[in-house]
């Protein structure tokens, strides 16, 4: 019995893990399916126009707070300050209108009862058809929503923890997928149930973000973070209850609910601000890779929050629907950045992403600006439609021809203005690539291959291995390598074989796994630079990531890769020079020996 008990416990533990895994998959699948069931019906808006906005919005007490000029509501006589009588207005219109902004089925009549100057007045608004340009925007919002759900579900299933569950709830809440059509498809009782489910998600998301910010890179939690987490877990159900009261008071019974609404908005903003402050606090005290992970998360949330605040200020009064959709779509940066930070071992420096965004954004603006100016000029100056079309086509061809030049100029301008240190490092590496073929010694080549890139790019390690006459590769120079690491490698080493199999060219090779005998931690090599000539591996250089954690970005890899050809030429030349010296020395020895032999012969004769 005693000998069997460990096996029984092991079996029980495995069964428990399988049950927990099955329950986790079922819970995630259910939540994702529910989210898709709510949002995917809006896809019908891609090929038809089932619903449309009336051009106004109200608070939870029914007071008209915004009214777009020349909108259907304004044309029908609705005014700012009017109060919608939520009790006498048809229930379907209230339920479908208030939670998402007042709207209705396209082409139908939307009946409201308005309280104005203490009197009831009926207002009938004809719901317009949505413009055609909104169809692709709806599709983009649905695709971004799927991205949120996919990343959130993948992270929680791959690495289940309270941290990843909190982020998953945030993804369910923050998805930009529209929720409009479902309100017209369900009967009123189910719309009420759906509203309560959305109420739970709408509060699980912000508190999930707060818990994620508390726990991100902080496990186990310090005492003050544990206390804050407990407070958040207590406030969450209270917020859900207040949200339920707000819904029933405003949408079902027509009771005043604006004080509750103002309180809940205060809680929401306080939660989001607290999450932002927690990310900042974590970033200040984090070091190495943890700092890089927080930096990526902060970058994603800053982009999303900035776009969200701009959207809240401008839409719907001062911005069209397409602008609103673009601002919502910007939230896609969050799951991409957080997923990258959570799942990747080595991270790119977020400044590289900002650099690329500035370059491509500026390129796009130049192209759009050129087309806009030409369109205005030829619309006003050239009345002939054919001539205008030919002019536009000519501009398009010219821009296409000059696109690479425009991109390179903008890239240079952005680098030299905002990323000067990086720009100077790239310029210096280009100069080194040109100087390498003229190196006067192997030590100088080794220094250019290792010491210069490590110093310029701030790398944690670097080393060069050179082929010896017996075929092994001997380490020539190393920075950041412990004494216990490789001094030489045989031709049979997997890394040497891999680099030798690359064939012609001097292509850089990413190193994703740890190899025994190489440095670990930040100094672990992430890039190998094979130096080849005549299909043979002459040498190779190994480089670690940045000394403060992030991975090498594509531009840095390209700069390092540019050193290979010059190094191959230099090694070949220096080897040939050494061989010529040996040959000359051997000839001199042979001449001396020949002379000595002649002298001996003369003596013997």
Q: What is the CATH H-level superfamily of the largest domain? A: Rhodopsin 7-helix transmembrane proteins
> Domains counted in the coordinates: how many?
4
The helix fraction, in percent, is 55-70%
CATH topology call of the largest domain: Rhopdopsin 7-helix transmembrane proteins
| End-to-end distance | 103 Å
Give the radius of gyration: 34 Å
| Unreliable spans | 352-360, 503-507
Give the rounded overall mean pLDDT. 78
At a glance:
This protein has 605 residues and is of the alpha+beta class.
What does this structure look like?
The protein has 605 residues and is an alpha+beta fold. The protein has four domains: 50-126, Pdz3 Domain; 134-344, Rhopdopsin 7-helix transmembrane proteins (Up-down Bundle); 356-418, no CATH class; 438-580, Beta-Lactamase (2-Layer Sandwich), CATH 3.30.450.40. It is built from 19 helices and 13 strands. The chain has helices at residues 5-39, 72-75, 91-97, 134-158, 162-174, 182-185, 188-215, 223-252, 258-285, 288-314, 321-329, 333-343, 350-380, 385-418, 420-435, 442-457, 494-500, 554-561, 563-604, and strands spanning 51-53, 56-58, 64-67, 83-84, 103-105, 109-116, 119-126, 462-467, 473-479, 488-489, 509-510, 525-533, 536-544. Helix 13 packs antiparallel against helix 14. It is elongated. Mean pLDDT is 78; it is low at 352-360 and 503-507.
